Amino acid sequence: MAESAVSQPAALNSDLVPAKKKRSNAARKPLAQKNAAADDESNGTPSPGKAVDPVAVKEVIQPSPKAVKQTKASKKTTKQTSASSFEKDLLEMQERLEKLRLEKERTEELLKEKDEILKSKEEELEARGKKQEQLQVELKKLQKLKEFKPTMNFPIAQQSKDKDNDSKKKKGGSETKRPSAPYILWCKDQWAEVKKENPDADFKETSIILGAKWKTVSAEEKKPYEEQYQSDKEAYLKIVAKEKREKAAMKLFDEENKQKTAMEFYEQYMQFLQEAETGNKKAKKEKDPLKPKKPMLAYFIYSNERRPALMGQSKSVLEISKITGEEWKTMSERKKKPYEEMAKKNKEKYLAEMEEYTKKKAEEELNQKTEEEEMLKIQKQEALQLLKKKEKTDNIIKKTKEDKQKKKQAKEGKAEVDPNKPKKPASSYILFSKEARKNLQEERPGVNNATLSALISVKWKEITDEEKQRWNDKAAQAMDAYKKEMEEYKKSAASSSVNEG
């Protein structure tokens, strides 16, 4: 083991230690002589020319056993120390190699991770680039869509409808007012007299006085107001019915027009897309050629006059504008005067032309408005015709449905409700409400049904138990009568069925 251990480091050292330089033969001879002399001295052989000690020679020739043992022990220890030192060196080298291997593996792993990160980032950048390209394409499309401006005109019926809605919003309701109740009409006539009699009374007090006075008015005095109310009501209902019919007709007409406008819009949009694909730019809106142009200022008149001379001197546009501007600033009022007078005349001429132009425009607008009104009338007639057709078809459908229902009922043999069958009597609250309603209508004429029903329910809660009992008794009597009538009805129905059988 020791020999192998020694041999391995020796081999390693031989690899690591650099090779010795070769010496020449001339240099070797004196060294050989020196080495030979040293060997002779160590072996005890005297060199020529020296005296030899006999005792020393004897010691050299015959060494003592103790010295021999010591030399052997020293050799062994040297061998052991050299072997152990080589083993240590070898272990250290192995540890270093292991560390280097681990470091190499780590660096390789780190490099792999970095490569993966770089790849993922490259992929992200590519994806972002693609997304950006898509967004740019979409943005271009949207920018093109902004340029799309449809030239179609919306139907007149729709425009008029919008105007009517706006006017109603401003006024706060429809133009047709509900007819005033007889009490309100009477109050309008009597208001001035009551105010004369009670000048200090406020609105609430005067209304209370009028309410009390209305109760004392006879039926004959109320009659003209009631007749007026009825006539107003009939007229109002006619107007409302006409308006409803017209609205229904116009709604139908609008639906048809909407379909037409939608088709026009679609066609224009498709045409716009084709033009956008081919790259043809849409022409800008032309200005009104009849509209007079604005007049030039005095400075611009001067600059137009001065420009040809400066252009002859091969001056640029910027230079010309600078020169003319400086000249105009330094120019005296006397020299400026003719240009200012010219500008003034041009302005007066422009204002006169603009006045004529605005008048013509106003006339055109009026004519257009009258045309629109005429067209609206025609459209209303067309709409009414459409409505009539629709009503006819609806009536036919309704009749067919009713006929089918009747046939079905006839097949199923459903009996119709007998008109001779006695009706169920009203409850105590219903009986009370009928009477209370009459009284309230006399006290508060013109009040709607919702408020009346609310007041009746409040009164029913406020009445005493005795009064409620009175109404309960009336309801009970009506129920007893109903039961008797039902018994008689059943008997008569049974006898009639027997007779038929």
TrEMBL record:
Coiled coil, from the record: 340-386
DNA-binding region per Swiss-Prot/TrEMBL record: 176-244, 292-358, 422-490
GO cellular component terms listed in the entry, alphabetical order: nucleus
GO molecular function: DNA binding
HMG box domain segment(s): 176-244, 292-358, 422-490
Compositionally biased residues, Basic and acidic residues: 160-178, 391-421
Keyword list, A-Z: Coiled coil, DNA-binding, Nucleus
Annotated region (Disordered), positions in chain: 1-89, 150-181, 389-432
Family matches, as Gene3D superfamilies: High mobility group box domain
Compositionally biased region (Polar residues): 1-11
Taxonomic superkingdom: Eukaryota
Protein name listed in UniProt: HMG box domain-containing protein
